[in-house]
Design goal:
It is a single chain. 45% of the residues lie in helices and 16% in strands. The chain is built from six helices and five strands; from the N terminus they run E-H-E-H-E-H-E-H-E-H-H. It has a five-stranded parallel β-sheet, with helices on both faces. Strand 4 (83-85), helix 4 and strand 5 (103-107) form a beta-alpha-beta unit. The N and C termini lie far apart (29 Å). The structure holds D-ribose.
């Protein structure tokens, strides 16, 4: 399993922490930056991770900024991306089970209900349930076509 990971400066330290966790779990990592805490812009890294996901170069993406909001908004502009900002194990589970999220977003400067590792683990261990949820994903895909977003 391969994971594309990226963050801005606010998420850099948490990116390194999650990277170490995923490596220890046996995942291959595609680190799309940033590579220091020097100020940078989250859309660049949201885009870079999203492209690895839609081009099937990895199994899923993980993106981090201060709140997780800016980088997930950015990644969600790339057609085919379903980036979910998760603050708990429960959200991470449902992001995969119901929304078939292909990118998980975390905020490094906000209070999480569970540890980042527990949240990522819940995402990894959950499966898309399909069925009625498939129909809703299809409707999301149609929105992308309709509004070219
Ligand atoms: C950077 O200061 C901060 O605005 C960014 O990391 C993020 O929280 C934006 O959504």
């Amino acid at each position: 399993m391969k994971v594309a990971i990226g963050s801005d400066h606010a998420g850099f330290k948490l990116k390194e922490q999650i990277k170490a966790f995923l490596i220890q779990k046996g995942f291959e990592i595609l680190d799309k930056g940033c590579f220091s805490e020097q100020s940078c812009d989250y859309p660049d890294f949201g885009e870079a991770v999203a492209l690895e996901v839609v081009n099937n170069n990895c199994d899923f993406g993980c993106i981090i900024c201060g709140t997780g909001i800016g980088i997930s908004i950015s990644a969600n502009k790339i057609p085919g991306i379903r980036a979910a900002l998760c603050t708990s194990k429960e959200m991470a589970h449902f992001a995969k089970a119901h929304n078939n999220a292909n990118v998980i977003a975390l905020g490094a400067r906000i209070k999480l209900q569970d540890s980042p590792e527990e949240i990522i683990e819940a995402f990894i261990n959950s499966n898309f349930e399909g069925g009625r949820h498939e129909r809703r994903i299809e409707k999301i895909n149609k929105l992308e076509e309709k509004y070219k977003c």
